[in-house]
UniProtKB/TrEMBL annotation:
InterPro entries: CutC-like (IPR005627), CutC-like_dom_sf (IPR036822). It comes from Rotaria socialis. Belongs to the CutC family. One of its GO terms (molecular function) is copper ion binding. SUPFAM superfamilies: CutC-like. This is Copper homeostasis protein cutC homolog.
């Protein structure tokens, strides 16, 4: 189980629930962006060293078509993480051309400085490409170990038929990592119907803010947007990984694979 997290609290909950790998991000509400080195260092200092950490490299929200400046930003982020000596186990990244195909040259530019012993995952930009068979072959040639995908559907449960086809096509040359919308209710079906050996989930719950004072100006928003609905609690709530959800999903995984 790989748990995507964007805070120390979530990383700790993932470990307490039994996860052995996290995808470290910021801004999961925007699909996940590059995290801070400060967060990585705190996790390495306070959580077991055996925890595998895959770092998201994505400089902004939106599409996956990047100009030279944006690529330079991501190159610098990769360099800083490598030079931080915080034992990064993997990087998660992806680039596309306007026609939806994988931007091979930009991807080569980003992965070139990454040591060979650091794993590479192509993120869910994969779900926007027109020919996934070609994409799998290209990523194998580039040295990627994983593809994070929902089977090109809105979530992995709806995409489970395509995920099975991807896994069959990959023939153990690359790991197909189902992700998006995986939860306690659908995990067993996804594992059994796709044949996936790994999966990706946030296992999150909604956490209420501890803020007691309520500003009477209802349209002020923490997130910098107009709060027209006037719901302070909704605006200040957070999404965090839940230890019990992780435990339950780990139990389901063992039920399927560890009979």
């Amino acid at each position: 189980m790989e748990v995507c997290v964007d805070s120390f609290e979530s990383a700790q909950a993932a470990v307490q629930g039994g996860a052995q790998r996290i995808e470290l991000c910021s801004s999961l509400d925007q699909g996940g962006l590059t995290p801070s080195i400060g967060l990585l260092r705190l996790i390495r200092r306070r959580l077991p060293f055996e925890l595998q950490i895959f770092v998201m490299i994505r400089c902004r929200a939106g599409d996956f078509i990047y100009d030279d400046n944006e690529l330079s930003v991501m190159e610098e982020e990769i360099r800083l993480f490598i030079e931080s000596n915080q034992h990064v186990n993997g990087f998660v990244l992806g680039t596309l051309n306007p026609d939806g195909t994988i931007d091979i040259e930009s991807l080569k530019r980003l992965v070139q400085p990454i040591p060979k012993d650091i794993s590479l995952t192509f993120h869910r930009a994969f779900d926007f490409i027109p020919k996934w068979e070609t994409g799998i072959d290209q990523l194998i040639e580039l040295g990627f170990q994983r593809v994070l995908t929902s089977g090109q559907e809105t979530n992995a449960y709806y995409g489970r038929r395509c995920l099975r086809q991807m896994i069959s096509y990959a023939q153990n040359r690359i790991i197909i990592l189902p992700g998006c919308g995986i939860n306690v209710a659908n995990l067993e079906s996804i594992l059994r119907e796709t044949g996936a050996k790994e999966f990706h989930s946030s296992a999150r719950i909604r956490k209420q803010s501890k803020m007691l004072y309520k500003n009477v100006r209802k349209k002020i928003s923490i997130n910098g947007l107009n709060n027209n609905h006037g719901d302070d609690e909704e605006d200040s709530a957070m999404q965090v990984t839940d230890r019990e959800k992780v435990k339950l999903m780990m139990d389901i995984y063992r039920k399927v694979f560890c009979k």
